[in-house]
Amino acid sequence: MVLQTTSIADDSAPPAASSTPSYDSSRLNVEWSGKESGPGVVLLHGWGSSAELMRPIARSLSDRFRTANVDLPGHGLSPAPTVPMGIPEHADLVFELIRAHFSSPVSIVGHSNGGRIALYMASEPSMSYAIDRMVLVGPSGITPRRKPSYYVKKYVAAALKAPFQILPPRLRDRGLEWLRHSLIWQLLGSSDYRRLTGIMRDTFVRTVTFHLDDRVQHVKAPTLLFWGDQDQEISREQMSTLESRIPDAGLVVLEGAGHYAYLDDPITFLRATRHFLDVR
Predict the structure, then answer these.
(1) pLDDT band for position 265 (50/70/90)?
(2) Whole-angstrom Cα distance, residue 254 to residue 162?
(3) Distances in Å between the alpha carbon of 33 and those of 5, 91, 127?
(4) In angstroms, what CA-CA distances link 100 with 10, 24, 89, 90?
(5) Which residues are CB-neighbours of 36 under 8 A, at least 6 positions away?
(6) Helix (H, G, I), strand (E, B) or coil at 263
(7) How far apart are the first and last CA of the chain?
């Protein structure tokens, strides 16, 4: 249902970004709720999660807003892509969804990697006009301070790959493919990496290595940031970077909450979010 408000999908708007040839927004599983005439809110979950864990937010907003709770590719009920996707391709899909179903800028509620996608969209001139404001919980995208173990794994990986680099292209590619499927290579990766195979593993790598440090200062949408002080995935330093670089941003620290802060302290999160989205 297209909302009859100020248009973001008319002929004067920039052309819709192209998604991957094998995946368009019609393949995404989307849980719709709320008033069809209400302001739009798009919910984006984190990596390895799904729309199911975002439902409490959608339910809370459904009396006032029209919510689109999205299963991103390869998560929930949305099929996996047939070619690896990175953050720009994920952003293209979400942007395409917004252009197809909403006629005015939407708010985005993003958790973790969903926040990374939202930050990319809000800092991309061809997409930013479609975003009114953002609520981001433990968003990823800012380069973390690396632990020594990271560099140990990095140098071991480089040493394992080095012998294959001197081979002819065909043998080199076969050798590197074998290495990527070897036990020692998998042990070098994170637990998320080890659980994945094939295209979703490649998609994971492209996604988590995409950083936005040099882009977030271009975000114009008012942004409300949430961070749980027990979050083991995103650091306080990363959140402070976002708060300082986004021109119109504020940070709420939820005491005792972890990476899924919106579930650990739902009352504070939902009250602040509703107030922020209602302010005009």
Answers:
(1) very high
(2) 45
(3) 18, 22, 24
(4) 11, 11, 17, 16
(5) 1, 3, 66
(6) helix
(7) 24
pLDDT in tens, 165-220: 777 887 777 765 665 666 555 554 545 545 655 788 889 989 989 999 999 999 99
Question: Residue 197 is encoded by which pair of tokens?
Answer: 């195979």
Amino acid in the structure at residue 18: S
Picking from 27, 25, 24, 23, the residue whose alpha carbon sits closest to that of residue 83 is 23
Q: Using a CB cutoff of 8 Å and minimum separation of 24, what contacts does 200-209 make?
A: 200/74, 200/80, 202/84, 203/73, 203/74, 203/81, 203/84, 203/85, 203/86, 204/47, 206/84, 206/85, 206/86, 206/87, 207/47, 207/85, 207/86, 207/87, 207/90, 207/113, 207/116, 208/47, 208/113, 208/140
Cα separation, 226 vs 62, in Å, equals 21
Q: Taking CA 27 as the corner, what is the angle to CA 26 and CA 31, rounded to the nearest 5 degrees?
A: 80
- Backbone dihedral region for residue 128 (phi beyond 0: left; psi -120 to 50: alpha; all else: beta): alpha
State the Cα–Cα distance between residues 200 and 219, nearest whole angstrom: 29
The Cα 115–Cα 200 span in angstroms is 19
- The answer to whether residue 22 scores a pLDDT higher than 80 is no
- Can you tell me the distance from the alpha carbon of 139 to that of 116, in angstroms, rounded to the nearest whole number? 6
